[in-house]
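Work Package 3 (structural annotation) set out to generate three-dimensional models for the target panel prioritized at the project kickoff. During this period the team completed the workflow that converts sequence records into discrete structure tokens, so that structures can be stored uniformly alongside our sequence database. As a representative example, we reproduce one entry of 218 residues exactly as it appears in the project archive.
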Amino acid sequence: MQLVMGLGNPGVEYAATRHNVGFMCVQALAERLELSFDQVTGEYVAAVGAGPAGPVTLMLPLTYMNRSGRALQAWARRTGLTVAVPPPPDEGDEPSPPAEVTPLVVCDDIQLPLGSVRIRAKGSDGGQNGLASVIEAVGANTVPRMRLGVGPLVGAVDPAEWADYVLTPFAENERPQVDDLIARSVEALVAVLSDGPELAGSRHNRRIRPEPDLPAED
């Protein structure tokens, strides 16, 4: 079983915000795979079926972004599957058996310009509270993730304004970039499920370069 978690906030008031691009991506993947979401608990909705490399579960937490790890724990309790990533063995020790399921997290990244895609097999949370919650729940930073850029193409957002920025909807003139990002991210997700994060990242990572600040015309 493979598990894909799209991070975001539940409710129509958040549906079109930058923070919910992880939801948007996984919902688009569900359409691609012809899977439907069902709610069986208050912590998440899930779509289960055939993925590109075998059985797959697509999950959208309903616990709000900074408690995404609680949805993962609820899913593990309900399914009886192990999600904790075992630590690397000490030198000379026998390797630990692999975890039954390692979640693949899809989330927004305010520090990447809109349209960027970055796939990594592990790493820090980079200030993304939902990813931080999942890492805490798993107990290790070896959580594959696909970060989708939602930041401005010109300049940067002051860290003090990050929370407000990610909770704003995409502007109308950004819709073409958002639609392109979702289409690209679905292709990248299929590749991660089929080939793993390292190979998929080498093919699908994409960094949009910020546009330079131009001097004002007289």
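The chain has one domain: 2-86+99-204.
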